[in-house]
Amino acid sequence: MSSSLALPARGGSRLAFLVVGLCWLAVLFDGLDMFIYGSVLPHLLATKTFGLTPDQAGDLGSYATFGMLVGALTAGTVADRIGRKKLMVSCVALFSLASGVCALADGITVFGLGRTLAGVGLGGLLPTAISMVSDYAPRGRGAIVIGLLMTAHHAGGILSAYVAKWLVEPVGWQSAFWVCVTPLLFAPVLAKYLPESLSFLVAKGRSDEARELAERYDVELPAAKSSGRQGAADRWNALVNLFRGGEWTQTLLYWLASFGGLLLVYGVATWLPTLMRAEGYELASALYFVVVFNLGGIVGMLVAGRAADRFGAPRISAVWFALTAAGVFLLSVHMPMSVTMVVVFLTGVFLNSAQTMIYATVSIRSDAGDRATAVGWTSGMGRFGAVFGPWLGGQLLAANHGDWGFTAFAIAGLSSMVFIGIAALRGGRSEGTADEEQELVAAH
């Protein structure tokens, strides 16, 4: 069996560096925009901005994740149709402009519209960037490259905490969202320097353009598909491919695991500062928890990526979700500040990378032509959990059951552990008896 994406030649590292670097910056801005709402939320609630109540705050958080659901579900199919580069540029422009809408909002309705539109851009960018860097990842290093990319998301989360800390009190909450408009200046840079996916160009029959790009960066041209199947060109066929043969079981397991994982990720991302304030910590300390949490996320991405390349992404994801559930549950227990910081850090290590390893599994095991669709739909179905998580946290706080918030999120982590664990066992049996599948996985 031949790989659909040939190994890069010696000069290919220059192209890989360019692609990963540009995608890293785009995902950095994605993380900033994603985490900024949770970072300013304690201030919004304390000052009763827009007359905001906890349940309404949860609804606003869900608006953004609903937009991410729309963006993620459509990202793969649109990227497979028009190209990953154009979609990435459009997503950066969209969530930047939408942050301006939030900054100008004079009520919950306009603010919610801005967060929804931002969510569409945020949801579309991440799976597209993952698919892009997967195209240029060295053989057998797909998971670590994706992990490296995802460190940018958490660097954006760290940046959001400092933006809130430095600007919200002295200048106003609107200033934080104006900062999130600045990535608009990056969109032209992305449009000029980011190359299009070679596998996409070949699949669309744009051979001359693909050849010119390959010669410019001294990389080998991907082999054209020998079969008549047009996975990258036919978005609907790419979706159907996820359910052909015995693939439907694995697809559903990944979707269910992603649901619980993103419920946990976005529930904690939205409510961590507020829940920690409810535990008696000052606002500044609560924001530092966001920094520590995302520092753990950066470490976790690098550690999990290396471990996943060696032991398999689904196995690592299952173990990481189990450790995440334990850490999140411990956050509901009042502990000394130093111990709490350690628990928050370790929870960040395991929580964020556990979900990313689901994407890594899907991306590495997918055919290059269907990869954007596979990752996009796995992310998209998980976004139903992302919508539910912020809403659930708001409802618990509104009912004066905020102490149950961490417990509810821990249960979500356990459910994802079960689903991805079953997928790991199934994958283990398949990998042990199918050398051909091992070759395909390694090729990506």
Which descriptors would you attach to this protein?
single chain; 444 residues; mainly alpha; 17 helices; 80% helix; disordered N terminus; disordered C terminus
* Binned strand content: under 5%
Low-pLDDT segments, ≥5 res: 1-11, 226-233, 428-444
Question: Roughly how many Å is the radius of gyration?
Answer: 21 Å
Q: Figure out the total of helices.
A: 17
User: Describe the biggest sheet?
Assistant: none
The chain-level mean pLDDT equals 81
Instruction: Tell me the distance between the termini.
Output: 13 Å
Structural class: mainly alpha
Shape: globular
Give the H and E element order. Answer: HHHHHHHHHHHHHHHHH
Assembly classification: single chain
> How many strands?
0
Give the % helix: over 70%
Provide an overview of this structure.
The chain has 17 helices and no strands. The protein has helices at about 10-45, 55-80, 85-105, 110-135, 140-170, 175-180, 185-195, 200-205, 205-215, 235-240, 245-280, 285-310, 315-330, 335-365, 370-400, 405-435, 435-444. Residues about 1-10, about 225-235 and about 430-444 have low confidence and may be disordered. The chain has about 450 residues and is mostly helical. Helix 1 (about 10-45) packs antiparallel against helix 4, helix 2 (about 55-80) packs antiparallel against helix 3 (about 85-105) and helix 11 (about 245-280) packs antiparallel against helix 16 (about 405-435).
